[in-house]
Design a protein that fits this description.
about 190 residues; alpha+beta; Elongation Factor Tu (Ef-tu), domain 3; about 25% helix; globular; ATP-binding; kinase; ATP binding; Riboflavin_kinase_bac/euk; nucleotide-binding
Length: about 190
């Protein structure tokens, strides 16, 4: 298992990209293949309800995911997120293959702890990863996954209230037209 200090090594990590459509979990349209059996549909609907309750979801494009430095391991992180020119919100991010859903493609799924009431595909998403919660894991049941997601959200919410984490909410990276806009996917050489 990855040690907490090793996971924190690459933090804070700043990245920016356009929001792309993810795997269809948590979105308004399920996108469930017709060959899915009823029990899997019920499991997915339960997950959908959780995602609707906890906030907005946004996914980064492949080039952002593939550009992650090796210090950023798979797992669950917390930090701050901003869509376009909107306010900065708390967020939880899952980085990895989401073994419960058997994903074959690595993703960065951002759960913004705010209800936007609308889709925001194509919007610019800026995030600052500030802390690490846990490694990526598989789950025996969807209820186990949902329980863990709720715990992750509580952990993130609590940690982001600390003074050490709040300073990143006002970081110049999130300000319009800042020199920090040149930090793209962790690279300051732009």
């Amino acid at each position: 298992m990855l040690g907490r200090n090793v996971a924190m090594k690459g933090l804070p990590y700043f990245t920016v990209g356009k929001v792309v459509k993810g795997f269809g979990r948590g979105s308004k349209d399920l996108g469930i293949p017709t060959e899915v059996v009823l029990s899997e549909l019920c499991e997915t609907l339960k997950f959908e309800a959780l995602m609707e309750a906890v906030g907005a979801r946004a996914n980064f494009p492949d080039e952002v995911v593939n550009g992650l430095p090796e210090e950023i391991h798979t797992g669950v992180y917390y930090g701050w997120a901003k869509l376009d020119n909107g306010p900065v919100h708390k967020m939880v991010m899952s980085i990895g293959w989401n073994p419960y859903f058997r994903n074959v493609k690595k993703s960065m799924e951002t759960h913004i702890l705010n209800d936007f009431g609308t889709d925001f595909y194509g919007s610019q998403l800026k995030v600052c990863l500030t802390g690490y919660i846990r490694p990526e894991m598989d789950f025996r049941t969807l209820d186990d996954l949902i329980s863990t997601i709720k715990h992750d959200i509580d952990t993130a919410d609590r940690q982001l209230e600390t003074a050490a984490m709040k300073i990143f909410k006002d970081h110049s990276f999130f300000q319009p037209e800042s020199k920090e806009d040149k930090i793209v996917n962790g690279d300051t050489s732009h």
